[in-house]
Amino acid sequence: MAWDFETEPEFDAKLRWMRDFLDREIIPLEGLPRHVQLDVDRMDEITAPLKEEVKRQGLWATHLTPELGGMGFGQVKLGLQNEILGRCSFAPRIFGVNAPDTGNAELLAEGATAEQKEQWMQPLLDGKLRSAFSMTEPHTPGSDPTQLKTTAVRDGDEWVINGRKWFTSNGSVADFLLAMVVTNPEVEPLRRTSMFIVPTDTPGLQIVRDVPVMSHPDHQTGEPGGHTEVVYDNVRIPHALLVGGDDGVGQGFVLAQKRLGPGRIHHAMRWLGQSRRAFDMLCERAVSREAHGGKLGEKQMVQDWIAESEAEMRAARLLTLQAAWHMDRHGASKSRVEIAIIKFWGAKVLFNVIDRAIQVHGALGISSDLPLESMYRAARAARIYDGPDEVHKVTVARRILKGYSEVETPSEHLSLRQAAAQEKFGDYLVRWADNNPL
Ligand SMILES: Cc1cc2nc3c(=O)[nH]c(=O)nc-3n(C[C@H](O)[C@H](O)[C@H](O)COP(=O)(O)OP(=O)(O)OC[C@H]3O[C@@H](n4cnc5c(N)ncnc54)[C@H](O)[C@@H]3O)c2cc1C
Q1: Between β-strands 290-291 and 151-155, what pairing exists: parallel, antiparallel or unpaired?
Q2: Model pTM above 0.90
Q3: Ligand 1 atom nearest to 136, measured from its CA
């Protein structure tokens, strides 16, 4: 079956516009003092005209279908857009496609009631509300959500939530959390959880802290981009905020999976944008720095890094576009292997390319004068969030192994090949032996 990643000229023009807009208007935001970059209100003020321009270009919240006010781009085009936006961490928010809001809007589009969509999803899409996704817990393995411990117990027309979550990204600046909690502990594991909309001003909801992490070790609670620890202490939520209403009971796992498929493609394409930016720095340094009688770019070891990086990025790009194409054609649930492959492969390529770019810059590479050191620290987490590498590799390997059967003797063993040849060419061998007596 042919793969086709071609895009029409009008869309190519939009991609060019986005590239130019990023260079001209968004990447310069990185030069602002850090306290301004981290102040939600000030950044909203500075970026408001940029968001308006994006909306005028018809490029706002492109992940959703036209009925929901998006452009209905599909995954290939979204991937290409995210590749451009990935170059700068400010860009996704300015285009209304930032995680976790995109995934959360997709989850609500998929599973919420009409009233929930109107009250929570639409303002989220319009950029008027911020959200967070609250699944992972400190004391249970996030890679195995069948073990979640936070519970919601029905009490009349309300649910009472108790438990502790962490790494709820953006939780401390969110207006509401989508909390995945256990509602049916007795049933089979994949039907135990449900998803709740939890407004962050609900009594009993405690924002404990934003957990400092290697990408932001000096992060202060309440700054955007934090990974929040949250305690649910008898948090009472009306039944109307159970995602999907009565039909939503037991749907937590299914909804979480729907949320993660497209998100992983967008991550992988954003990583390519980051990788390319690091690669450009690598090459610029290679043609500029002179050592041991020649430019670094003339040394074969540096040429090896350049060639390996280019090959890895091209391979990752093709794999990701193919996964996006597969998803557009066959849907997320039939693209699990494709998505799992790009999740661990893309994260590795990102890390490799940034690492080589740092190496070619020597001491400058690990200094904060260049963005490489912070890109490197952020890249490490890519191997963990949205499922660690190992879990994705298990998915791929299990699916592949389903295509094989157990045998007593390896099918390629000489004895079996000789037996097959005897059966197929027996007559010929007899004739040959008759004509060639020993
Ligand atoms: C930057 C960042 C942002 C995040 N944002 C969010 C968010 O917004 N909302 C949210 O709910 N969560 C979020 N998370 C949490 C993330 O989803 C979890 O960290 C992840 O699912 C792994 O869970 P865990 O940390 O509990 O590790 P564990 O599940 O304890 O796994 C630890 C390690 O065990 C190994 N392992 C696990 N399973 C297997 C296996 N089958 N075979 C071999 N080895 C295995 C892996 O090496 C894995 O890294 C975020 C995490 C990070 C780092």
Answers
A1: unpaired
A2: yes
A3: 11
Look at residue 104 and give its three-state secondary structure.
helix
Distance 29 CA to ligand 1 centre (A): 31
- Which CATH number applies to 9-125? 1.10.540.10
| Superfamily of 254-401 according to CATH | Butyryl-CoA Dehydrogenase, subunit A, domain 3 (1.20.140.10)
Structure tokens at 16: 């060019």
Please tell me whether residue 214 adopts helix, strand or coil conformation.
Answer: coil
| Token pair of 381 as six digits | 């987490």
- In angstroms, what is the span from residue 138 Cα to ligand 1's centroid? 10
In the structure, which protein residues have their CB atom closer than 6 angstroms to any atom of ligand 1? 100, 133-136, 141-143, 167-169, 227, 381, 384-385, 387-388, 390-391, 394
Q: Which two tokens stand for residue 291?
A: 């050592």
Separation of CA 229 and ligand 1 centre (Å): 15
pLDDT tens readout for residues 108-120: 988 999 999 999 9
The CA 438 to ligand 1 mean position distance, Å, reads: 69
**Interhelix angle 300-330/74-85, nearest 10 degrees:** 150
Q: Which atom of ligand 1 is nearest to the CA of 171?
A: 8
Residues 6+ apart with CB under 8 A from 264: 339, 342, 343, 386
- From the options 3.30.450.20, 3.10.450.50, 2.40.110.10, 2.170.130.10, give the CATH code of 131-243: 2.40.110.10
pLDDT per position as a tens digit, 225-269 = 899 999 999 999 999 999 999 999 999 999 998 777 778 888 999
Domain ranges of the chain: 9-125, 131-243, 254-401, 414-438
